[in-house]
């Protein structure tokens, strides 16, 4: 089972790596249009911040894939937690793709091919239980929210790019705040359910609340 989970994670990692190669290749196809003209003025610091955020979103996807696989191991067998983290990974991947589409819509490459480095170093510490997993996810989301705020600051500040700032504020921060609230609620409920009997409380939460 451990082997199949390991190979499953490796297969997903390879799929994401091939995505990064495809996007880098796609970026190379973006040449100068004949008759060279300028139609957008999105400034470099804002583009760099956007590309960094795309990296962050895919890195968050890898973190949640790892967590989803961890909770699915037969000795842990918390399928509710596993599904929750696999779903979170799919959402992060979707966020990354939406930002790539945004960059392309503004006439920029989908990624910065020189700095698109995915981070596979995350490991779930041994004996992590469901509550610790949710707390790790909340920490990760706080970090992502901070990072989005950083992009907004760069883009609405010196770069005066109100459109991207508005997109991130209206769509991304909205989802971040709702997601963080949901995680905080789950942690509180699980914590209470574990009071009398930690394992039974976690099992019931896994089957009914997540
Ligand atoms: Fe995200």
Explained architecture:
With 210 residues, this protein is mainly α. The chain has 6 helices and no strands. Helix content is 73%, strand content 0%. It has a single domain, classed as Ferritin, core subunit, four-helix bundle (Ferritin), CATH 1.20.1260.10. The chain is elongated. Helix 2 runs antiparallel to helix 3 (79-105) and helix 4 packs antiparallel against helix 5 (162-193). The longest helix has 32 residues, at 162-193. Fe (ii) ion is lined by residues 57, 60, 92, 95, 144. One of its GO terms (molecular function) is ferrous iron binding.
What value does the average pLDDT take? 88
Count of structural domains: 1
Largest sheet: none
Order of helices and strands: HHHHHH
- Estimate what percentage of residues fall within beta strands: under 5%
What is the correct CATH architecture? Up-down Bundle
Name of the top-level CATH class: Mainly Alpha
Structural class: mainly alpha
Uncertain spans, ≥5 residues at pLDDT below 50? none
Task: Report the principal-axis shape.
Answer: elongated
The Rg value, from CA coordinates, equals: 20 Å
Distance between the termini: 23 Å
Per DSSP, the total helix count is: 6
- Give me the CATH fold name: Ferritin
Total strands: the figure is 0
CATH superfamily: Ferritin, core subunit, four-helix bundle
Oligomer: single chain
Portion of residues within helices: over 70%
